[in-house]
Every structure is written in structure tokens, then in C-alpha cells.
């Protein structure tokens, strides 16, 4: 990428998302409540969980979401798709929850994973999302900046942003050359294992250490920032640290937007899912909808495979081997530095197919999330269902109607897989009871997409509004047109080649190079 602009810039984003829309400065500001595309359906109309008459979430998970065989994406989407989706989600969404797990899911007696002895007292801990009362009803809030603004790289507060910066030459801190800094200052960082906080990487988002794929993306864009800062410092030796930092930050944010709208979304939703960009529309409500944050964009949990594949430049498995997902939770800092770095992980993401977007969830997420059952392990499917009810999400049919689609009267209208239809019928009396997250995953996919029509509508609507309502969207930002006039030619592969030793990799990283499922090294 050619850096051509002069610094200083004409404007910069706030860290927390405030003051993007000058008429509505709180829009998508960290700490503000999610907006609603469809009215909540709290059982008591203002705060108690929705779906009081629906089946137990773990019962639904066992019946609908259990997975025995790998199911790969029909459009050959690579594992970069789910990885980018998680990386992007952490830019836009962070829902805080309370300390007390007051909506824990009761585990059915005799559950083979969580209650094998049949005691009947096991639970899957879930804490209520923190909420505020707006017009008499509970609304959850977002601790991330709601814009696509690279806050997962830079932080959504001045304090976190400062902790990541070196304040020398506009660069971000590194623990050693090319790696994220350690969290030596005790900032808030996710770690369910409650280990030494200083052993974890520090990034803009607190969840950066969750898995090796995500941490590799965080590392990649930290490197790209520092590469840009070095280029700017050479070009403008009189520029200040702040000027260089903000210029590089602006370019990285533009790159993330470009990749999202020109590579990630078209590969997932189809090329024409979003209307063409017509310029900034200040009257657009760009707020993050609760249905998007709490159900729709959790689709990625279905797309994750059991293994993080690690590949050498010649295509061979590395000496450290592929890593089972469950074996690497919150170990990114140790494993990336001591087991070959990010290059093998990024090669692996490009090679293999992601899982099909469907109701089936791998055991690493459904039974062993962050540990074994009874030892901190969770069922992410149960958590997602319960979280939707916690947020008052109405039925899947209510969501369909809110987005202009006809409600379904029979489960066979959703899916043409008999096993899926039978599973849904075994736990839901009718489609009018269906939890939205389950419905999104159960839908038969559109021909040009890897998702069904309802999920496609929700995602296309959210991303269109985020694009059109963003005053700093890269196509509307004069600084970007001056700083990086060739931004439209930038792809994710370019950023990888500039910041790693990877050479042998395809141009379209969201389509797997190998269209055959690889032998699963983590098969239970």
C-alpha cells in the first residue's frame, strides 16, 4: 500500500464511538443500549426472561445441536470466514454480564456430559447481561464501540488505547518483535481460568486470547499498524507520535472495513446482499440491534471446526501439530510464541473448509467450552439460547415478520433435512416457540449464500446501516482518499503477505484452497 498523504489529519474517530453522528452523538457509543428491530417479549412485559413456556436450553441443545460428523460449507468458505467474523464481532459487540449467575441453565438429570451420575443438580452457569431500564423495560447495553472502527485493535476507551501504545514513532507496544504486548498493567482481560494475568496478550478487546486463530488476527493488524507507522515516520520525519499513530489507525480501520464489505460479506451472504454504497446518510440509524448482537451474529459458533490447523510453507503439518480447539483456550500467548508463530495458523485457516452454518455445534463449544464439564466447561448452544431469552428476544417468527418475511407454520418450511425437522419438533410445540438463534441456524440456505433468508436479512440490514450511517466510512473520509488512494485494491491477503513470511497462499482467503474436508485430528 502506498502512503501518500500529509499529516496531520482533518479528523479522527473517538475511541468509544461517540460523536460520529453529529446530530446524535451517543449513537453506537460504548455504554449505550442496543436498539431494537423487533420489540422484546419479556414474559412479564418488562424484564423477566422470554420464553417461559419453552423447553430447557440444554434439552434443546442435546436434541438439536449435537454433532457427530463434520459438515463443511457448501460454498467452500474457508476457516478465515468464522475467524474474521469473530474478529469483527469483537469490534462491534461486547455485552457485559453480572457476577452472579442468576439465570444458570439447569442440566437434565443424567446428561451424559454434565450430569453423568444422574444427581439432577448440575447447572451450566449463566449470568444475566447487565441492563438499563428504558421506557419501563430492560435493555442491555454495549461496552464496545458499535462502529466498524478497529476498536478491537485499539481499544474502546482512551485508557485502554493508551495502555497499548508505545508513544514512540506512532507505534503500538510489542512484547517481543511482532507479538502483542503482555497485560502487565492489569487491564480487564477475559480469562476464565483465572491464571497469571501478565501471561496474557493485551489488545484493544478483552477477548483477544480466546483462541489461536483470533489472536493471530489481532497480531496481524498490530503488525500492520506498526508497519504503516514506520512508513509514515520515514515519509514525514517531522510528524509527531500522535500524528503518525492516528494516521496509521485510520488506515487500519479502513482496511478492516474494506475487507468486511468487499470480501467477507459477499462470500457469506452473496454478492448482491447489500445495496451499493451511495454516500454518507446522516439520518440513518446505525445502532447495533439486539437481535444482531444476541442471536444473528452468533451464527459463527456453528462454523467453527474442532482443530486449528497449523501448516508449513510447503504444505506439511508443523512439528507442533494441529491443535484441538478445546486444548488451546486462552493459551494464545504461550503457543504462538513457542510453537511457530502466526504463520502456520494463518496458512491453516486458508486451507480448510469451515463447518456448515447449521444447527450442529462441535463438542469443543457445546460440551467443553473453556474446560471440561464440571470443571468450568460450558455449553455455548445452551448459553446462546438462554442469552436470547435473557435479552427478551421474541420468537423466530416474530423476527421474520419484523424483517418483512412470512411466518412459518410448520418446521418443514424451515428445513428439508428430516433429522433437523424431527429434532425441532421434539423440543418445540410449534414454530411460534422457536428461539431465534436456533431458527437462524435451522433455515435452508439461499442458493447464493451460506445462510438462510432470515439471517441474511438481519445481517444485510445491520451492515448496510453501519456502512451508510458512518461519517468516517472509508469511502466518505477525505483523509483516507489522501492517505491510501489504493485502498480499494487492498485485500486480506495483501496484509498477510506484508506482515508474515507467507508466500504460498491464495488471493481470495475466504474461499478454501482445499475443497476436501481434511482428516480430523481431534475426532472424539
| CATH class categorisation of the domain at 57-162 and 256-305 and 355-499 | Mainly Alpha
Tally of helical runs: 17
The low-confidence runs, each spanning 5 or more residues with pLDDT under 50, are none
Q: Rg to the nearest angstrom?
A: 22 Å
CATH architecture label of the domain at 57-162 and 256-305 and 355-499: Orthogonal Bundle
Cα distance spanning the termini: 45 Å
Please state the overall shape, judged from the principal axes of the Cα atoms.
globular
CATH superfamily of the domain at 57-162 and 256-305 and 355-499: Haem peroxidase domain superfamily, animal type
Beta-strand percent range? under 5%
Quick overview of this protein structure:
The chain contains 17 helices and six strands.
List the helices and strands and how they pair.
Elements lengths: L56 H9 L13 H14 L12 E2 L16 E2 L6 E4 L2 E4 L10 H4 L3 H7 L47 H24 L5 H29 L20 H5 L12 E2 L14 E2 L7 H7 L3 H10 L11 H4 L13 H11 L5 H7 L15 H10 L8 H7 L10 H16 L9 H6 L8 H8 L25
Antiparallel strand pairs: 1-2, 3-4, 5-6
Account of the 3D structure:
It is a single chain. Helix 2 packs across helix 5 and helix 5 crosses helix 17. The protein has a domain at 57-162 and 256-305 and 355-499: Haem peroxidase domain superfamily, animal type (Myeloperoxidase, subunit C, Orthogonal Bundle), CATH 1.10.640. The chain has helices at 57-65, 79-92, 151-154, 158-164, 212-235, 241-269, 290-294, 332-338, 342-351, 363-366, 380-390, 396-402, 418-427, 436-442, 453-468, 478-483, 492-499, and strands at residues 105-106, 123-124, 131-134, 137-140, 307-308, 323-324. With 524 residues, the chain is mainly alpha-helical. The longest helix is centred in the middle third of the chain and has 29 residues, at 241-269. It is globular, with a radius of gyration of 22 Å. A hairpin with a 2-residue loop joins strand 3 (131-134) and strand 4.
